[in-house]
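ok trying again, last paste got cut off:
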Amino acid sequence: MLTFVPSKQDNEKKMKQKAMLLMAIVTALLMQSCNDYETYAEKKEKERNAINQYIIDNGINVITEAEFKTDTATNVSNNEYVLFSSSGIYMQIVRRGCGEMLKNGETATVLCRFSEYNIMGDSLQLANNVPYYVDVPEKMTVTMGKGVVSSGVFVAGESLMYSKYGTTAVPNGWLVPFSYIRVGRQSTPDDEIAKVRLIVPAAQGQSSASSSVYPCYYEITFEKGL
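nice, full thing came through this time. structure:
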């Protein structure tokens, strides 16, 4: 019985074939990895597309800051939102609110009811305007600067946003309305507290939105705390 003994050339040939197969596998994995990886610019492009599609799908009429500044109002029946071009935030003032606007240098406690939707995920992420949280309004302190809020802080232990995202910093998107709304309390049955709707891009949003690059839609009411 003859026993076949591979020659040196055969062994070298098999080693080369194995090496080539290994290189092909590594190359395929690297290419897949590159295909799966998104640059920040690509994520931002997806975010812009998602916001634009949301505006179209919901019949939103966008007005400019120049148009808005004539009366600092948005026509709710016409579904108007003002676009703040420097931040990319869209805002609709549903109710300007009772009471007074915050004064320069004033620090106030503000209670909020809100819902937060992930526009790209088409899902409700967080809300305290539901029966389960009826006794738990969002609590934060804000300080008014020269026409804009200079700081906003969620109160730890009294903030769903803090519990969810782990920071007391109020997203910039939440602070924009204070330049245009009155922050008071209902003292008569006809009084209505301020209410706004916001489309907030990742860069102006909470920590998760900022890190994962997705925009959020908010409905928020604002009431002055005691």
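cool. Strands lie at 61-63, 80-84, 89-95, 107-118, 123-127, 138-144, 149-154, 194-200, 216-224. Helices lie at 8-36, 40-57, 65-68, 160-165, 172-175, 207-212.
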